[in-house]
Write a structure and sequence with these properties.
With 608 residues, this protein is of the alpha+beta class. The protein has five domains: 21-97, GIY-YIG endonuclease, CATH 3.40.1440; 109-247, no CATH class; 256-368, Nucleotidyltransferase, domain 5, CATH 3.30.420; 396-549, 2-Layer Sandwich (Nucleotidyltransferase, domain 5); 555-607, 5' to 3' exonuclease, C-terminal subdomain (DNA polymerase, domain 1), CATH 1.10.150.20. The protein contains 20 helices and 19 strands. The strands form four sheets. Strands 12, 13, 14, 15, 16, 17, 18 and 19 form an eight-stranded mixed sheet that branches. The protein has a five-stranded mixed sheet with strand order 9-8-7-10-11, sandwiched between helices. The protein has a three-stranded antiparallel sheet with strand order 2-1-3. β10 (316-319), α12 (326-337) and β11 (342-344) form a beta-alpha-beta unit. Mean pLDDT is 85; it is low at 1-7. InterPro entries: GIY-YIG_endonuc, GIY-YIG_endonuc_sf, GIY-YIG_UvrC_Cho, RuvA_2-like, UVR_dom, UVR_dom_sf, UvrABC_protein_C, UvrC. This is UvrABC system protein C.
Length: 608
C-alpha cells in the first residue's frame, strides 16, 4: 500500500487487492501530504476508475500522477462512508477536495437557566451554559433583529448579569417600555417567568398559542375590571398578530432550507435560504473551494455533508440539483439529527418559487464575487509595480494602534491575500507595561509578539508589512525585524495626507526612505487604504470591547471578602458606586454583612 515515489506506485495492482465493500479512500503524495479523500459504495469499482480508465480529465490526471500511497477504511454502510468522508475533509482539508470554507460558528439566541430572572442574549460559540439555545440563525443581524422584537413583545431582560445585579434603580429600557425592571423587583418572579414562557413559546414557533393564551388573559382581566392590564394585553396581542402577518411566509414549512449552486470560472457559490417556524430568517452565501472540476450536484452534496455535520438539520432541504447519493445523504442526516429529513430536488408551487429565488441569489453573488476578485487581482498587480516587487504579494499584513487617552491600548494585525481579507489570521494584542499614549512603544511590543514566532520558524511570513503611521512607526518595525533577525519583508508606512483626505496618503518606503504619492486614481493605493482601514476598524473594535469589559467590572471586586451579594447590598444601600465612595467607615458598617474590618478595607481600596 505504500511506496517511496508516485512513479513506483502500481495503481492497477493495488485495485486488484481491494474489497467491494463500502468505505473511504485517501490518496497521499510522496511527501505524505493528503491529496484527496473520497467515499465509495464499492471501493474496488470506485478506486479502479482512477487507475484503469484510459483517459480522464487533465486536472484529475495531474492528481493521479502524484499518488504515492493509498489508504483504505472499510465501513459497514455507504452512509457511514459518506459521514466519515465529510468528517475527514472538514478536519484534514485535502488539496483536491471540495472544501466548505466556513470557520465561523453561527449565532444563536440564548435563554439563561437556573435563575429567578433569566435573560435573553446573543450567543456565538460553545453551547455549554445552562439554559436553552434557539437557532442557529444565518447572521448576527437576524439574531439582533429577533432580540429587538422580543424586547418589544415580552420585555424579558437582555442586560449582562454584572449590570443586572448591581442596579439600584430601573434603567432606560424600563423607561421606554422594553423591560419590566426585574433588577429592582418591580415585577414578581411568577409574572416574569410567565413572560419568559411566552418568549420561549414564540421562539419555538408557537406564536398562535401565545396569542390565544394572552387573549384569554385579556378577557379575564376585563371581567375582573382590571382595565389597565386588559389594555396592555390587548396591545401585546395586536403586536403579535401584526408581526405574525408580516413575517410568516406563505408556503414555507416549519423548518426548511433551500439550497442552490452556481459554478463559473472555477468558482462556486452555494446560496441558502433559511426558514424556521414558517418565518424567513434570511439568506447566506458560501464559496466552497473547487480544486477539481465539479458539477453543481457534487458541490451541493459535499456542502450538505460538511455544513450539517455539526449543526441542527431542518426537516426539509429543497435542492436545485438532484444529488448522486441523495437517498444515502438523507438517511445519514436522519440518523444524525434524530428526526426525519427529506431532500427534495423536484418541487412545485411556492417551493419552486423559493428555489428560483435561491438560484438568482447564487448567480448574483457569484457574479459580484468574480468581479471583486478581478478588481482585487488588478490592485495586487499594481502594488507589485508600485513597490517594485519581483512578483505580486501573496500575503499583506497591517498593524494599527487604538486607545483612549493612552488607556487600554490595543494593537491589531489584519491579513489580506489575493482573494481578500483572511479573517482567521487576524490578531489583536492587548498592550501593557508602556507609558500611556506611547504609540511607538505599543507598536514595538505588538511587532515583537507577532514576529518572534516567525523568527522561531513558526507562523506565516508576510511579503508586505504595512504600518499605519509615518517614519517613526516604520523605524519601530525595522528595529524589531532587525532584532529578531527576520528579513525579506517589505515594510511600508501609510501616512495620512493633508487634511486626512482619502486618496492623498503618503507611502513611506522603509528600504529606500523614499516617500511615494500614488494619488487617488492608483489601484495600489486603493488596496493599501482598504487594508489600513480594516486594521483601523479591527483595532477600534478590540479597544471598545476591552473598555466595555473594564467598565463592567466594579472596583469593589478588588476588595477581599466582597462577593456578589455584599457588593449588591452596598450599591443598593448607597444608590450606586459614587454613594459608596462618599460613605465613611461608620456608614459602611451599617450595611448588613459588612463588619468594621471589611468596611476599612473597602474604604482603603476606594480612596487609594
Amino acid at each position: 500500500m505504500q511506496s517511496t515515489s508516485p512513479q513506483a506506485f502500481d495503481g492497477k495492482a493495488f485495485v486488484k487487492t481491494l474489497t467491494s465493500s463500502p468505505g473511504v479512500y485517501r490518496y497521499f503524495d510522496e511527501d505524505g501530504d493528503l491529496l484527496y479523500v473520497g467515499k465509495a459504495a464499492n471501493l474496488k469499482k470506485r478506486v479502479g476508475n482512477y487507475f484503469l480508465k484510459p483517459r480522464m480529465e487533465p486536472r484529475i490526471a495531474s492528481m493521479v500522477s502524484q499518488i504515492a500511497r493509498v489508504e483504505i477504511t472499510v465501513t459497514r454502510t455507504a452512509g457511514e462512508a459518506l459521514l466519515l468522508e465529510s468528517q475527514l475533509i472538514k478536519s484534514l482539508k485535502p488539496r483536491y477536495n471540495i472544501l466548505l470554507r466556513d470557520d465561523k460558528s453561527y449565532p444563536y439566541i440564548y435563554l439563561s437557566g437556573g435563575e429567578d430572572y433569566p435573560r435573553l442574549a446573543f450567543h456565538r460559540g460553545a453551547r455549554n451554559q445552562p439554559g436553552r439555545y434557539f437557532g442557529p440563525y444565518p447572521s448576527a443581524f437576524a439574531v439582533r433583529e429577533s432580540l429587538n422584537l422580543m424586547q418589544k413583545l415580552f420585555k424579558v431582560r437582555q442586560c449582562e448579569d454584572s449590570y443586572f445585579k448591581n442596579r439600584s434603580r430601573p434603567c432606560l429600557q424600563h423607561q421606554i417600555g422594553r423591560c419590566t425592571a426585574p433588577c429592582v423587583q418591580l415585577i414578581t418572579v411568577d409574572d416574569y417567568r410567565n413572560d419568559v414562557r411566552h418568549a420561549e413559546m414564540f421562539l419555538e414557533g408557537r406564536s398562535s398559542a401565545v396569542i390565544d393564551e394572552l387573549a384569554g388573559q385579556m378577557e379575564q382581566a376585563s371581567k375582573a375590571l382590571e382595565f389597565e392590564r386588559a389594555a396592555a394585553l390587548r396591545d401585546q396581542v395586536a403586536a403579535l398578530r401584526k408581526l405574525q402577518a408580516e413575517h410568516h411566509v406563505q408556503g414555507a414549512s416549519a423548518d426548511m432550507d433551500v439550497l442552490a449552486c452556481r459554478i463559473e470560472a472555477g468558482m462556486a457559490c452555494v446560496s441558502v435560504l433559511f426558514f424556521r417556524n414558517g418565518i424567513s430568517l434570511g439568506t447566506r452565501d458560501f464559496f466552497p473551494r473547487l480544486p477539481l472540476d465539479a458539477e453543481p450536484s457534487d458541490v451541493l452534496e459535499q456542502f450538505i455533508a460538511q455544513y450539517y455535520l455539526d449543526r441542527p438539520v431542518p426537516r426539509e432541504l429543497i435542492l436545485g440539483e438532484s444529488l448522486p447519493d441523495q437517498q444515502i445523504l438523507g438517511e445519514m442526516l436522519t440518523q444524525q439529527s434524530g428526526h426525519a429529513v427529506e431532500l427534495k430536488s423536484s418541487v412545485r408551487g411556492e417551493r419552486a418559487r423559493f428555489l428560483q429565488m435561491a438560484e438568482r441569489n447564487a448567480q448574483a453573488s457569484l457574479t459580484a464575487r468574480l468581479a471583486s476578485r478581478q478588481t482585487l487581482g488588478a490592485r495586487f498587480d499594481d502594488l507589485q509595480k508600485l513597490l517594485e516587487l519581483d512578483e505580486p504579494p501573496r500575503r499583506i499584513e497591517c498593524f494599527d494602534i487604538s486607545h483612549t487617552q493612552g488607556e487600554l491600548t490595543v494593537a491589531s494585525c489584519v491579513v489580506f491575500g489575493p482573494e481578500g481579507p483572511e479573517k482567521s489570521h487576524y490578531r489583536r494584542f492587548n498592550i501593557s507595561g508602556i507609558t500611556p499614549g506611547d504609540d511607538y512603544a505599543a507598536m514595538h511590543q505588538a511587532l515583537v509578539r507577532r514576529f518572534r514566532k516567525v523568527a522561531e520558524g513558526e507562523g506565516a511570513r508576510p511579503d508586505v508589512l504595512l504600518i499605519d503611521g509615518g517614519s517613526g512607526q516604520v523605524a519601530q518595525a525595522l528595529d524589531v525585524l532587525r532584532e529578531l533577525g527576520v528579513s525579506g519583508i517589505h515594510v511600508v508606512g501609510v501616512a495620512k495626507g493633508p487634511g486626512r483626505r482619502a486618496g492623498e496618503e503618503t507611502l513611506v518606503m522603509a528600504d529606500s526612505g523614499r516617500n511615494l504619492h500614488p494619488g487617488p486614481a492608483s489601484p495600489a493605493l486603493h488596496l493599501v487604504a482598504a487594508v489600513r482601514d480594516e486594521a483601523h476598524r479591527f483595532a477600534i473594535s478590540g479597544h471598545r470591547k476591552r473598555r466595555e469589559k473594564a467598565r463592567e467590572r466594579s472596583v469593589l471586586e478588588d476588595v477581599p471578602g466582597i462577593g456578589a451579594r455584599r457588593r449588591s447590598a452596598l450599591l443598593k444601600a448607597f444608590g450606586g458606586l459614587s454613594g459608596v465612595e462618599a460613605a465613611g467607615v461608620e456608614e459602611l458598617t451599617q450595611v448588613k454583612g459588612i463588619d468594621r474590618g471589611l468596611a476599612e478595607r473597602i474604604y482603603a481600596v476606594l480612596h487609594g
